[in-house]
Structure formats: C-alpha cells, structure tokens
C-alpha cells in the first residue's frame, strides 16, 4: 500500500501512484522493517530535481521494480526540502561512502536508520542489480552489513560534531576572506570556478558589505562583473525575470532550468544592494523584475511563496524556454524576429539541444527604443505562455519565505530611498524608464507583509515553528535552525518597515527558542532542537551553501535584534556563534559567505538609526538613512516614543523638526536634523 496520497509535499504526492509501497518518513516505517526483518530503502529528492524524475520514470513507476522493492525492503520517500535534517544526515553518509553527494539520493539502512550503502542516481538496470545485491548481502552477510553501517554512522557522527577551535571574526579574517574570493574569481565570465557554475549570492553579499566598510574597489568590481554576466546570461529569464538554479557551463549561457525561491530571494538582496550603492540601472532593473517574478510565478493565495518551478516540462528539460530563429519569426514577423534573434543570441546551430537556443543578451541595447524592446518581450511572453509550463512545487518553506521577506523589505526601502533621491531619473532602456517603481515598492511591501503574516499565523504552532505548509495547512515536520534564523531576521525587517511591535516580539520569541533548544556548548548551534526526533547523528553544518547555514542566519537575526531591542546579550550570542566558524572563513570564503557578511555588520556596528518624525514614510531623513545605511544597519522611523519601537524611546524631535539619532554598538552620536549632517555621520 502506497501511503503518500495525503502528504503535504508535492514531491511525495508525485510518487503516490507508484507501484512501490512507499512510506513517508515516520517511526512506523522503521517498525515495519524491524517486524519483517528487512532493510530500509530511503529515497531522498525534491520536486524540481530533473534526475529524481528520471529515476522515478525508469524505476519507481515500473511494476517489476516496484515488486522487487516491496518484497525485500521497506521503502521510505523523503522530500529533502521538507526534512532537511534527514537529508543532512544521509547526505553526510553518502559523501563519506562515495566522496560525493546529490539527488536523487539512494540509501539502504537498518531498521534503526543506520546507513550501510549509499549512492545517488542509478539507471534501471544498475538499480535492479543493486537491489538484488543488497538483499542477498542482508540475508547472507548480515554481520558484514552491520559492521559497514557502524563505520558509516561513526563517520557521519564525526562529520556532524560540534566543537573545535573558536576565534573572534576579526577585520583581518574578513579581509583575508575577500582576498581569497579575489583569487578564485573568474575574471572572464564572472563568478567563481567553472562548470557547473552557481550564482554566488552569499559571497557577493559579503563582498558588497566588505566594500561598504573598506572601500575596496576590487570587491565591488567582482560583484558588478558577476551580476552583469548573470543578468545577460541564459541563467536569467530574459522574458519573465527570475534566475535558474545554476548554469551547466562556465559562461552562464545554458541553465539547469529549475527556479528556486531561495536563489531568487538571495539574488534580489544582492542586486538591490548593488543598485543602492552604485545606482547601477541594470541592477535596479533586475531587482524590480525579480520582485515581479516572485509575485507572478511563486506567490500563493493567502500569503507566502512556492518553493520552486520544475526543471522539466512534460519530462523535457527547458522545453518551455528555448527558441529557434524560425520560432521568433513566426511570433514577431520577419524583421522583428531577426532583430530578436540577434539580440538574444538565437542561432541556427543553437546553444542548447536540437538546434534550440536559450535567450541571453548577446549585445548591448543602449540605443534601442524602450518601446520596441517592451513590445517584443511582451509578444514572446504571450507566445511562451501558450506552451506547456513547468510544474510548481507550491509548498511554503519557512526559511526560504523568511529569505524572501527580508529581500522584499530591503528592495522596498531601497527603491523608496532612491526614488526620493531622484536616483531613477532618466531612461532605462531595458526596463522602460523608471516608471512603475512606486508600484514595485507597494508590491514588494504587500508581499512581504502578507508572507510574514502567513508564517506567523500558520507556521508558528504553540511557540514552535513548523517547516512547511501547503494550501494554507501546516505540515507536521518541525522547523530546523535555519527556519528560526531566517524567519527571525525577516520579522526584524518587517519591524523596521512597518514600525509595528508584533514583528519585533515575534523575532525575540524565535531567537529565545533557538538559544534554548538549538545552542551548543561552544557557542555554536545544532541544526535540530534538543527535543527533536533523534536521528543517526544530530546534524550541525555551519557552512553556507545554496542558502545560509542555520548558524549564519541565526547570527544575522541575533545581530539585528540586538540593535533593534538594545539588548547586548543577543549580540554576544551572535559573536560567539560566528567565532565557531571564523577559523575557516579566510580559507573557505565561498562556503562562509553569509557568516562573513554578518561579520561585516558586527564590525560596522551595526549602526542603529532612529528617525523621529511626523512623516514616518516619506521623510527625507528616513530616505537618506536608508540610502546610506552601512552594512547590517537597522533603521526605524516614527513619532517620538512610538509604542513598540524601542529605538524611538526617549528621543524627541529637536526644535519641532524631524530628528535622526545614530548609534553604533550602543554608543550614540549627537542628534541631527539635516540630511547633510546625517549622511556625514553615516559616512
């Protein structure tokens, strides 16, 4: 009996009709394996994973393979996005056993969850042979299997252990991290490393903050070059906005077509900050289009964002997105079709499969009338909308939605500040000038508040977080550390945007749970709570990868909350957490990007900026504060002694005029009433 029909996860529901008698991850599945005295087959993947679909079609949808699994194993299907704790443990086991990891992940384990054989994708013939071999080994060589499992469990426990040297995350270490990234930077195509090439959003965010603090021109150059290369490449959807997961090449040309919420949230932060610091119009355009992509492609009714768009369309990767020259002519006509083919690099040979091309900006369009480009993009979008569309994984993940809220708030405040400073004057040939920016600010604000409200209302249950919801109903899996950290940081952002006390109170509640339930003795954190389900090992990964680690996200939230609340003990907790990862920051900067970014905020202050005003939305002092805010600064605005905003307490307006109070590390400058004086204090 397949038991996945009622699952919250769309990935599990995709397997609900398999001939495999799947179980979701639950104690009853392991009890069944114990009762039958058979090993457990644990298959881990996610809905937008191309090779997960391939293995499902080849093996899990095959009646004979399904029968072989059912006769010899208890089969458990896991959505890695819904259960990142389970995924982390078995990914560590797979890496320990094979030297690499990925998805689909295929693990054979004992009835107590101890893995004894691990791998990833297996073609059907290989998988069938493996099933026979594992079954025979379980029957005939049980002692050897158990010894192998014990060795793997020991390796996993060591890899997940919390401890080791700690040291303060100093300016010297952050300078060394920036220098390391400079050495690993691809000066030709931007980014770091070769194929496949992933958007290095967290490293870019760190480099921008490093540039803010130090004025390092090379750090800014790396970000500008990489952001432009990605924006011009096929990894960015030139028609509808949004970034794909990664490029299969080193030039950003051909993407792996899945689009993840977390990538787009983090890249929105990067392009927004680059736009705010430099006024770069391309960065501003990409930021605005990413907001619209989130609204149009990933927003779900009732608040929140879906996790991903699939890489496949009807089992074919990229089918929705690629074009031939003839297809462009059929949609646009001869003249416009040839012009679009030249602009977007669509050739007869193609850049993708079967003579098709991924759209990319192959040349500059500075002299192109905006109306022509807007008309062509609109026509191509309409034509593309008539094609089959990729599936959407519409579960709402707490941590990733927290990332989106923070990004949307940062965009809304930056765009408002830049608009007020007339930074958007003049035509933007790719966005059709600055018209509509006010609408984008309103859109970003509405999305951020609605998402925050949904997460607070639905995902917070009895003072503890749940990992996911779907269709407005919360799922069973408990939240992990990144959920607490990312959502607390988002709530701190919403407090700054709205001036409402509830967001700051919610952030404090989450951080108190993190400190009470996830903290380790050395100042670091585990990824699961002390009262969570016990796995083979208690996961604790401090490295930043596709998203910030739970440790880095929590340190960021602790830093912001300490500044907003005026509570040094939370800052001390952030510093202690970063001290556990500081020893590897300089050597492995690409995998500690958010930790380094938080370190920059702490070195900077972070600044605490309070604007006391009768106009808490459009005051020039507020716009100047947001425009020139140093790394990690918190900015609030409101009337004197406004209830629920600690930074406004006991801070009057001087001479009846709007007044800015700037503090740094709980030490304050004199209050100022002019924009020039405020900017001087922030410089």
Quick take:
The chain is an alpha+beta fold. It has 24 helices and 21 strands.
3D structure, described in words:
The protein is of the alpha+beta class. The protein is built from 24 helices and 21 strands. The strands form 7 sheets. Strands 1-3-2-4-5 form a 5-stranded mixed beta sheet, with helices on both faces. A 4-stranded mixed beta sheet has the order 19-18-20-21, with helices on both faces. The protein has a 3-stranded antiparallel beta sheet with strand order 8-9-12. The chain is globular. The termini are far apart.
**What is the gyration radius calculated from CA atoms?**
26 Å
* Total count of helical runs of at least 4 residues: 24
Q: What's the rounded overall pLDDT mean?
A: 93
Enumerate the strands of the largest sheet in spatial order, edge to edge or round the barrel.
1-3-2-4-5
List keywords for this structure.
10% strand; single chain; 683 residues; alpha+beta; 24 helices; 50% helix
Compile the SSE list and pairings.
Elements: H1 10-13, E1 22-24, H2 27-36, E2 40-45, H3 50-60, H4 63-72, E3 74-79, H5 84-98, E4 105-109, E5 115-119, H6 124-140, H7 142-159, H8 171-184, H9 201-214, H10 217-232, E6 246-247, E7 255-256, E8 259-260, H11 261-278, H12 281-298, E9 308-309, E10 312-313, E11 316-317, H13 325-332, H14 334-344, H15 370-385, E12 392-393, E13 396-397, H16 398-420, H17 437-459, E14 460-461, E15 464-465, E16 468-470, E17 473-474, H18 481-498, H19 501-517, H20 550-565, H21 568-585, H22 593-604, E18 607-612, H23 620-628, E19 634-638, E20 659-664, E21 667-668, H24 675-682
Parallel strand pairs: 1-3, 2-3, 18-19
Antiparallel strand pairs: 2-4, 4-5, 6-7, 8-9, 9-12, 10-11, 13-16, 14-15, 16-17, 18-20, 20-21
């Amino acid at each position: 009996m397949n038991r996945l029909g009622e699952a919250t996860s769309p990935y599990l529901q995709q397997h609900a009709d398999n001939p495999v008698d799947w179980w979701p991850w639950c104690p009853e599945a392991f009890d069944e394996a114990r009762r039958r005295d058979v090993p457990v087959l644990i298959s881990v993947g996610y809905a937008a994973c191309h090779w997960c679909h391939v293995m499902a079609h080849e093996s899990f949808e095959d009646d004979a393979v399904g029968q072989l699994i059912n006769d010899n194993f208890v089969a458990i299907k896991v959505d890695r996005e819904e259960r990142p704790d389970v995924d982390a443990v078995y990914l560590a086991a797979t890496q320990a056993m094979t030297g690499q990891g990925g998805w689909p992940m295929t693990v054979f384990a004992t009835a107590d969850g101890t893995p004894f054989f691990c791998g990833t994708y297996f073609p059907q013939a290989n998988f069938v042979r493996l099933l026979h071999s594992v079954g025979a080994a379980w029957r005939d060589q049980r002692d050897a299997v158990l010894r192998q499992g014990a060795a793997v469990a020991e390796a996993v426990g060591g890899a997940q252990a919390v401890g080791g040297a700690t040291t303060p995350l100093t300016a010297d270490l952050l300078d060394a991290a920036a220098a390391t990234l400079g050495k690993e930077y691809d000066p030709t195509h931007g980014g770091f490393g070769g194929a496949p090439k992933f958007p290095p959003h967290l490293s870019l965010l760190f480099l921008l903050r490093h540039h803010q603090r130090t004025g390092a021109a090379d750090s800014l150059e790396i970000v500008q070059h990489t952001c432009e290369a990605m924006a011009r490449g096929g990894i960015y959807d030139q028609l509808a906005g949004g970034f794909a997961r990664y490029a299969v090449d080193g030039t950003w040309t051909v993407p792996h077509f899945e689009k993840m919420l977390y990538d787009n949230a983090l890249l929105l932060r990067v392009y927004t900050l680059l736009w705010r610091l430099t006024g770069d119009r391309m960065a501003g355009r990409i930021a605005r289009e990413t907001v619209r992509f989130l609204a149009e492609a990933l927003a779900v009714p009732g608040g929140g964002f879906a996790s991903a768009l699939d890489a496949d369309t009807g089992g074919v990767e990229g089918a929705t997105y690629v074009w031939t020259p003839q297809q462009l002519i059929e949609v646009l006509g001869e003249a416009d079709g040839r012009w679009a083919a030249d602009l977007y690099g669509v050739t007869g040979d193609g850049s993708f499969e079967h003579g098709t091309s991924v759209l990319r900006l192959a040349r500059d369009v500075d002299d192109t009338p905006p109306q022509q480009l807007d008309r062509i993009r609109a026509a191509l979008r309409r034509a593309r909308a008539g094609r089959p569309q990729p599936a959407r994984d519409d579960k709402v993940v707490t941590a990733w939605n927290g990332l989106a809220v923070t990004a949307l708030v940062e965009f809304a405040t930056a765009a408002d500040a830049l608009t007020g400073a007339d930074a958007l004057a003049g035509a933007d040939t790719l966005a059709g000038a600055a018209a509509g920016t006010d609408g984008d600010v309103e859109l970003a604000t509405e999305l951020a508040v609605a998402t925050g409200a949904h997460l607070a209302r639905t995902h917070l249950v009895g003072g503890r977080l749940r990992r996911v919801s779907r269709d407005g109903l919360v799922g069973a899996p408990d939240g992990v550390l990144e959920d607490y950290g990312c959502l607390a940081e988002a709530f701190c952002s919403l407090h700054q945007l709205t001036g409402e006390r509830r967001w700051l109170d919610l952030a404090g509640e989450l951080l108190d749970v993190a400190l009470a339930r996830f903290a380790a003795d050395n100042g670091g954190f585990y990824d699961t709570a002390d009262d969570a389900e016990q796995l083979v090992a208690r996961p604790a990964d401090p490295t930043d990868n596709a998203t910030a680690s739970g440790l880095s996200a929590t340190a960021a939230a602790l830093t912001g909350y300490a500044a907003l609340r005026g509570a040094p003990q939370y800052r001390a907790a952030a510093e202690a957490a970063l001290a556990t990862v500081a020893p590897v920051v300089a050597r492995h900067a690409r995998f500690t990007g958010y930790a380094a970014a938080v370190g920059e905020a702490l070195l900077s202050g972070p600044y605490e900026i309070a604007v006391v005003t009768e106009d808490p939305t459009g005051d020039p002092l507020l716009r100047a504060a947001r425009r020139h805010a140093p790394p990690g600064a918190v900015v609030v605005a409101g009337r004197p002694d406004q209830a629920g905003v600690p930074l406004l307490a006991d801070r009057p307006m001087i001479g009846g005029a709007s007044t800015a109070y700037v503090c740094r590390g709980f030490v304050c400058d004199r209050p100022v009433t002019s924009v020039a004086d405020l900017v001087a204090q922030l410089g």
